């Protein structure tokens, strides 16, 4: 469109804002990446995934926060809420038991990757830390998660064919607002779908942890209504409003696309949108790159009617 940007001449630079991040976060609206340099790491010699049960989502989040802030931090650290734990640990005949037959609580998945020596040392430290928080091992749960984590998305097509509505959404927030966000988004999804006559099953888990906060990932399933796309849009809009009201971000890793544009615009404000539009005008003056994604199209310039053309 407007020219070529050559970025990243050093591993670290203080020469102004990092324009690489501007391009990487632009979802193709500012340019096309034609060349890149990647960092290559050795494949880990050892991979181990453990399952741990904690008494509740609150207790589990407290343990994950301690590991994220005080260490040691595993390679993978996830925590399912009570509903997702009951489903993930259930076997045929136990579905719908509500977790009672499974011992209740919440399942944490803890993964370690690296050399044999490093994995053994960090795993022992993390295990002691989790035990100090009252966690108990769940034999086989880690291996089961590792083996099946990429199978679940393929179940969606079968569920859709069977008349179910299945979708996901995610957000990120600070530790201090985690449980408020969890409760409000669940309530918004429940109310929006129940109002349409299709009460849902809502599962959630912490998918990523940081010293300052977490990513919270929701899976929603319900019976399909007469217009399933409109049905989900109503639920998604309710969840988006709840996320915005809680002060969380509209998306942690799914991207903005077109679905999140209204909430993203509110999140960064009018001035932020104008900054992005200014960049768009400079780099893509013809407006041909992924139009409508990330930022809404600019309204057309008002025109003055030609009096010679009549009314």
Q: Any descriptors?
A:
globular, 39% helix, alpha+beta, 311 residues
| Main β sheet profile | 7 strands, antiparallel
Q: What does the radius of gyration come to?
A: 23 Å
Into which percent range does the helicity of residues fall? 25-40%
Give the oligomeric state of the chains in this entry, treating copies of one chain as homo and distinct chains as hetero: single chain
Stretches where pLDDT is under 50 for at least 5 consecutive residues are none
Strand order of the largest sheet: 4-1-3-2-6-7-5
Element-level helix/strand string: HEHEHEHEHHEHEEHH
What is the compact description of this entry?
With 311 residues, the chain is α+β, with helices and mostly antiparallel strands.
Structure characterization notes:
- With 311 residues, the chain is α+β, with helices and mostly antiparallel strands.
- 39% of the residues lie in helices and 18% in strands.
- Strands 4-1-3-2-6-7-5 form a seven-stranded antiparallel sheet, sandwiched between helices.
- Strand 6 (201-209) and strand 7 form a beta hairpin.
- The chain is globular and about 80 Å long.
Compile the SSE list and pairings.
Blueprint lengths: L18 H6 L21 E9 L2 H14 L5 E5 L1 H8 L16 E9 L1 H17 L3 E2 L3 H8 L3 H10 L2 E11 L3 H17 L6 E9 L3 E11 L4 H19 L14 H23 L28
Antiparallel strand pairs: 1-3, 1-4, 2-3, 2-6, 5-7, 6-7
């Amino acid at each position: 469109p407007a020219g070529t940007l050559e970025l990243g001449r050093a591993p670290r630079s203080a020469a102004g804002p990092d324009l690489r991040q501007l391009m990487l976060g632009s979802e193709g609206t500012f340019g096309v990446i034609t060349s890149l340099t990647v960092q290559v790491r050795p494949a880990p010699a050892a991979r181990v995934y453990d399952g741990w049960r904690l008494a509740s989502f609150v207790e589990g989040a407290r343990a994950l926060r301690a590991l994220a802030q005080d260490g040691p931090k595993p390679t993978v650290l996830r925590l399912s809420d009570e509903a997702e734990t009951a489903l993930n640990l259930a076997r045929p005949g136990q579905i719908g038991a509500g977790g009672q037959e499974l011992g209740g609580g919440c399942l944490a998945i803890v993964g370690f990757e690296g050399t044999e020596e490093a994995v053994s040392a960090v795993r022992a430290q993390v295990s002691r830390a989790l035990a100090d928080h009252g966690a108990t091992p769940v034999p086989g749960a880690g291996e089961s998660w590792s083996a099946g984590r990429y199978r679940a998305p393929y179940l969606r097509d079968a569920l859709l064919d069977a008349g179910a509505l299945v979708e996901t959404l995610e957000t990120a927030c600070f530790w201090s607002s985690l449980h408020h966000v969890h409760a409000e988004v669940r309530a918004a999804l429940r109310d929006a779908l129940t109002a349409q006559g299709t009460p849902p099953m809502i599962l959630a888990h912490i998918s990523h942890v940081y010293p300052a906060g977490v990513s919270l990932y929701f899976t929603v399933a319900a019976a399909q209504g007469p217009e399933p796309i409109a049905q989900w849009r109503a639920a998604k809009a309710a969840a988006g409003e709840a996320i915005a009201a809680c002060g969380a971000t509209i998306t942690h890793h799914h991207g903005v696309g077109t679905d999140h544009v209204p909430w993203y615009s509110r999140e960064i404000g009018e001035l932020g949108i104008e900054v992005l539009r200014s960049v768009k005008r400079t780099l893509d003056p013809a407006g041909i790159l992924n139009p409508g994604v990330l930022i809404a199209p600019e309204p057309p310039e008002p025109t003055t009617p030609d009096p010679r053309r009549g009314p």
